[in-house]
Design a protein that fits this description.
Length: 333
């Protein structure tokens, strides 16, 4: 019996022929990384191959010595005889799907991806394959994400209704914050947007990479002048909402941008007054559409509602299985 092209291991998804892991959650000799979110991109590997932007994002987050050797993914490379190439995933800046030719089959590991337009990164590229490894973060039929511009419209309406209140928008530091800023600009907001310090460096990096974000300012309150943020937009990591930092602003409206805001219990748990359903992952229609369009005859499903998507695939006549990989979060900071 032929050895499978990829094997789930505690360290991550392993390619025996190429002797490398994809997005390993533990230190390994050689890792191929799909994108810079912390549950996919860890420090401490002997060698890391990724897109230039992902390598630079990892250096920003972990320091220049996050790996022994950096290998920038070009248009095509061979890793211990396995032909690999990286293709845009549309998830965050630098995110990629990894295409491999193994044993006469084309295998694509998608990482996290989205089909929705995202001005903060390159758009998703459909890669035909025989075996498609897909995430299932929102892998239930109930998940159908609304128009993100309409969700930002809720923020604009709240600003008009409550001009004396600061509007704090919880946004993850890599990808979500920059996408939300771009959407706010698309909605016509040309005033400064204020940032928690934890978001500043990655926003600066996006600007360096040519992503237009407009005027950004530090969310620094002058002594005794809370009113300076009345009617303003402040972006912060969600963790800041539980700290005294958020209490310094005038009667803040707490908003949170996430695909999970479509689940009312999640919004209540976050004590969120203004939930904005903005996701950097595919919803159910986009997941199933992508699987069809790849032409894959076999689908492996990971991190999310695996069983539901596996069931759908099998009903379509596709060979499918869940991977049950551990260490991947729903939507990491």
């Amino acid at each position: 019996m032929a050895e499978p092209p990829l094997i789930p291991r505690p360290e991550g998804l392993y390619c025996p022929e190429g002797r490398f892991y994809i997005d390993p959650v533990q230190p390994v000799d050689r890792a191929l990384i799909t994108h810079g979110h912390a549950d996919h991109a860890r420090a401490g590997h002997g060698a890391v191959m990724a897109t230039r932007q992902t390598l630079e994002i990892m250096a920003i987050r972990y320091g220049a010595d996050f790996t022994g050797t950096r290998e920038e993914a070009g248009t095509e490379a061979r890793v211990n005889g396995v032909k690999v190439s990286f293709h845009p995933a549309g998830h965050v800046l630098g995110s990629a799907q990894i295409r491999m030719e193994i044993g006469g089959r084309v295998v694509v590991v998608s990482g996290d991806y989205t089909r929705a337009p995202n001005p903060a990164c390159a758009p998703f590229e459909l890669v035909p394959c025989d075996l498609f490894v897909t995430e299932a973060t929102f892998g239930l039929p109930v998940f159908r994400h609304p128009d993100p511009l309409a969700e930002v419209g809720k923020l604009m309406a709240s600003l008009a209704q409550f001009p004396d209140r600061a509007h704090l928008v919880g946004s993850y530091a890599l990808g979500k914050a920059q996408r939300v800023i771009a959407l706010i600009r698309a909605a016509g907001w040309d005033r400064p947007i204020y940032l928690h310090g934890a978001l500043q460096r990655l926003c600066d990096y996006h600007i360096e990479q040519g992503v237009p974000l407009g005027e950004l300012r530090p969310a620094t309150i002058e002594r005794g002048n809370k009113a300076q943020f009345a009617g303003e937009i402040i972006l912060a990591p969600p963790s800041a909402f539980a700290a005294k930092w958020a209490q310094r602003f005038p009667d803040p409206v707490l908003a949170f941008a996430s695909g999970w805001m479509g689940v009312r219990a999640r919004a209540r748990q976050r004590m969120c007054e203004l939930p904005m359903v903005i996701s950097d992952h595919c919803d159910w229609p986009a997941l199933t559409r992508t699987i069809r369009e790849t032409g894959a005859s076999e689908v492996w499903v990971t991190h999310g509602a695996e069983e539901a998507l596996v069931h759908w695939c099998r009903k379509q006549g596709l060979a499918a299985q869940p991977l049950h990989l551990v260490g991947y979060e729903e939507e990491p900071e």
